[in-house]
Amino acid sequence: MLHILEKEHGPRYLLDANGVDPFTQRPFSDMMKDAHSRKHDYYLARVQCKSTASDAKAPYYCYDARQLCKYVFEMVISTEGRQIRIKNFQDPINNEHINEISFFLLKYDSDTPLRAEYVGDHEKFLSNNSFRSRIFYQSGVAEELPVNFQFTPKEIPIINKRRFLSIIIMVIILLVVATLLFVFTEKGVMKPYQLHHSINGKHYI
């Protein structure tokens, strides 16, 4: 069985439903039946690659949309909040750079089950939360996509050389002052003691 994947002003692509999805290793027809049996629409992702700038025709590859999104996108959590970003924009089979990802919908109650409806591209996936939720069957995107935490550690202030030297000098000055105060205090205590000792010992001048 062949499914037609076509978008307006774009080339037509025929998908063999008996073909195997590289991620799940299951035939596309089985995954479509599973989704439709639960009254869910099934989403396909068509990847367009271009090896060189001179290629006349860019190759296409088809994947289960949910599995491909887990491979390509990630959720980044930082001090700025949560954001969906591209993690890896290389085709998983041949490692070629991806030019475009097109998403197609196979409705469970469609009157034309062999024709897939174009519903958006990778840019729409990045910007539209409702679109992402439909692809993941209304489950939380945070539960489906890999999460990347990017919190910048607080910078520890570095004491420059001049400031360090000034601190050392201040410490030395304080130590000297404290030592002098201690010496003067000790001398003040010793003089009355020596005078008292001389009187009791009857040493008079």
UniProtKB/TrEMBL annotation:
InterPro entries: DUF5092 (IPR031537)
Entry annotated with the keyword Transmembrane helix: yes
Xref: Pfam families: DUF5092
Membrane-spanning residues: 164-184
Keywords tagged on the record: Membrane, Transmembrane, Transmembrane helix
Name of this chain's protein: Uncharacterized protein
Organism: Ordospora colligata OC4
